[in-house]
TrEMBL record:
Pfam families named in the record: ADH_N (PF08240), ADH_zinc_N_2 (PF13602)
Domain Enoyl reductase (ER) positions: 9-305
InterPro entries, sorted: ADH-like_N (IPR013154), ER (IPR020843), GroES-like_sf (IPR011032), NAD(P)-bd_dom_sf (IPR036291), Zn-ADH-like_protein (IPR051397)
CDD domains registered for this protein in UniProt: MDR4
Lineage, broadest ranks: Bacteria, Bacillati, Actinomycetota, Actinomycetes, Pseudonocardiales
SUPFAM superfamilies assigned to the protein according to its UniProt record, in alphabetical order: GroES-like (SSF50129), NAD(P)-binding Rossmann-fold domains (SSF51735)
Signal peptide stretch: none
Protein name, UniProt field: NADPH:quinone reductase
GO molecular function list: oxidoreductase activity
Length: 308
């Protein structure tokens, strides 16, 4: 099969080449990939850390070529959206059926391919907070792919949404159109909130944690700064106004129940209830262009590669 192979001598660290077809385990379906979306973490770190010749990629939409031998998962010919630790940047991938969501017929595979990491991470982060109807939620790094999903889903869940972005003048109108009630340039500017989806880390996480109300939860999802979190002395003390606050983390690939999440998100994309915010789209031989835009922070939203 054709695939994007790690080759650090090539632009973007990838080149089109040939790789062996995957051999699915009994609990895996073989999926013919039609589109994949790129994530900052995989192009910034995973390409650098992987040996030449590797086939990477987390997110992919496609069609089941061969159903799982154990009878689990969708049938042959079913449009699907898939999540796995590798294998998305190829014509075929083998995927555990508990990480496969079904997709409505006729849905745009490119839009659907944005769902697995960005959409599911945002959804799981909001679930970690508990019911958000009538609550106040802050999303940091709101202009990225996960941030834009988090803003929409928090608004859909009935929260009052504050979006934090480094350039409100450029991105404020777009974030408000997605559902943000307020847009700020720094988490420290936010009013007190009941929950935080933090996609930045470092000093912004510390500032966002300081805005948590009693019983509030900060879910650390992204770490774009590459910096540690240095809390000032006293920030983690218990006090009447700081009672019962939580910092939570999760690893998406260890989460159970992902198939229903992926299916639900794909349905929301297909009906137009969620906007995938695709801001770059092209054939997979143009992957270096998309990677350069992601790493240069000139691309806000999601980049989609069409496979084949």
């Amino acid at each position: 099969m054709r695939a994007l192979l790690v080759d650090r001598s090539a632009p973007g660290g990838l080149r089109l080449g040939q790789a062996p077809d995957p051999a699915p385990a009994p609990n895996q379906a073989l999926v013919r990939v039609t589109a994949t979306s790129l994530n900052y973490g995989e192009v910034r770190h995973i390409i650098e850390e992987s040996p030449d010749g590797s086939v990477l990629g987390w997110d992919a939409a496609g069609v089941v070529e061969r159903a799982a031998a154990d009878g689990s998962g969708p049938a042959e010919g079913t449009p699907v959206v898939t999540l796995a630790p590798d294998g998305a940047w190829a014509e075929l991938r083998a995927v555990d059926t508990h990480r496969i969501g079904t997709v409505p017929q006729g849905a745009d595979p490119g839009a659907i391919s944005t769902v697995p990491v960005a959409g599911a991470s945002a959804l799981r982060a909001l679930h970690r907070m508990g019911p958000i109807l009538g609550k106040r939620v802050l999303v940091t790094g709101a202009t990225g792919g996960t941030g834009r999903y988090a803003v929409q889903l928090a608004r859909m869940g009935g929260a009052h949404v504050t979006a934090s972005t480094g350039n409100p003048a450029a991105h404020g109108d777009g974030l408000r159109a997605l559902g943000a009630h307020e847009v700020v340039s720094d988490p420290a500017e936010s009013a007190t909130v009941d929950g935080v989806v933090d996609l930045v880390g470092g000093g912004q996480l510390v500032a966002a944690h300081d805005r948590l109300a009693e019983g509030g939860t900060l879910v650390a999802v992204g770490h774009l700064t590459g910096e540690g979190e240095n809390f000032p002395f006293g920030a983690l003390f218990g006090a009447p106004e700081r009672h019962d606050r939580t910092i939570a983390t999760f690893f998406l690939l260890r989460c159970t129940g992902l198939a229903p999440d992926l299916t639900w998100l794909a349905e929301r994309i297909a009906t137009g209830d969620l906007d995938p915010q695709v801001s770059w789209r092209g054939a997979w031989d143009r992957a270096p262009e998309a990677i350069e835009a992601l790493l240069g922070r000139t691309l806000h939203g999601k980049a989609v590669l069409e496979i084949g």
